[in-house]
Amino acid sequence: MHFSDATSPVDRFYCKRGGFIPDYEFNPTTFGILPLAVEGTEPDHLLTLDLVQKALEDAGVFQKNTSLEKTGIVIGKGNYTGPGATRAIEIVRTGEQISSLLQELLPQVSSADIEKVKHAFQERKGRFAADTAMGLIPNLVASLVANRFDLGGVAFTVDAACASALIAVDHAVQELQRGRSDMMIAGGVHTGQNAAFWSIFAQLGAMSRQEQIKPFSIDADGLLIGEGCGFVVLKRLEDAVRDQDKIYAVIKGVGVSSDGNGTSVMSPSVKVS
Asked: Are 161 and 76 a contacting pair, CB within 8 Å?
């Protein structure tokens, strides 16, 4: 692994390639969210809401008017600071730091003028108010989904780095095995593409200097950071067959299902985009 030069600027990156989710349109009123609050909400919260709705639609939940009283959600998600929280930090902390720095370097500038500079900086960073605060807490995205879709089961996030989505599915399967839930939503979301996030990996020298990923190759020299979000809807196989659900795949485990092949899970899902 190549470590970056300690003297290199922290805002310059040697790798410019990555995987990015294209622009998409989000209708906040569909989920009872004020359009004014969207600007301050983390993008992964909005993506999750949108894709969970699509997954439930694909599973026929709304068409069949299926009860969600025993439905839960587990989301694989890194608890890093997203762009929304970064903006809030800059508004609160960086604005004050700018004021202190100006007072120190330019003592001849009046306090009133320095205050104007701080307020101008904060206004250009966007809104940060009570109606945006909820959408900035990383581990509350599952709670947001549970609230908007009135889910009665468990709702939490797990962070296992690159394995987060797989661990989320594993936890969801356990909920079904234990009988605490009759349906589970599981998946992962990652949209950490702000400059600070990239700077961390650049300083570690973890990103590929060839700007290519080469798994299992002797020529591999690092990773490329990518975005992604996707969810599946899971049920016990016997329940899915009984309900005449659309079945895309079966996850075999250690339990016993109706056909003797082990605990199984039905996953009507949406394509990962």
From this structure: no
The residues that bridge with 183 in the sheet, in sequence order, are 71
User: How far is the C-alpha of 251 from the C-alpha of 127, rounded, in Å?
Assistant: 44
Taking CA atoms, 161 is separated from 152, 179, 183, 224, 230, in Å, by 27, 28, 25, 14, 16
Which pLDDT value is given to residue 7? 54
pTM given for the model? 0.79
**CA distances to 25, 73, 88, 114, 178 from 101, in Å:** 40, 46, 20, 10, 58
**8 A C-beta contact, residue 133 and residue 81:** no
**CA–CA separation, 268 vs 61, rounded Å?**
10
Chunked mean pLDDT (size 10), the chain, 273 residues: 55 87 86 80 89 95 94 91 76 86 90 89 78 72 93 95 93 94 95 80 91 92 91 94 92 55 40 27
Give the pair of three-digit tokens for residue 144.
């947001």
DSSP H helices, 91-133, are 95-105, 111-124, 130-133
Q: How far apart are CA 128 and CA 167, in angstroms?
A: 33
